[in-house]
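User: Fold this one for me? It's EF-hand domain-containing protein.
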Amino acid sequence: MEKTSGLLAVLFLCILFTQKGIAYGQPSRVGNDIFLKVSEIFRLIDRSNIDGYVSLDEFLSTVLDKDFNGDNAISREEWLTIDATIGSFDKETSNRIFQAFDTDNNDAVTLPDIIATFSTFDAAIKRDGKISPFEYMLVYSQLVTRAPTKKIS
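Assistant: Here's what I get for EF-hand domain-containing protein.
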């Protein structure tokens, strides 16, 4: 039953992204590209790939893989470097996602930031100690598709 609802949720988001692309006068491919990238990132985080959910341990270890210098904090440079390497999103989108993960705004994603972010994903639908594909898609897609922040000069 949970797998069926997860598949329906993914289908719903695919339709939503496609419609969002059309609504803004962009090719529907744009929405589908975002959906595919977010789906791929979820698969990378779901390391055990047994139950289709992401546990806190999986989430922590995946985010901490971006910590190149071993200080248990991911700097903006580390974040942008790994995103550029895997080609997930453009620099502006990666920056917005970094800012969302950096919950205390100290320009580094630390363990407390990662745990708080996990909690945000987990609470998107039901707080149960694991992130479902739908919860992940819901929160991550909001981060990716939200309007760019204006810089004050």
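One thing worth pointing out: The first strand starts at residue 54 and ends at 55.
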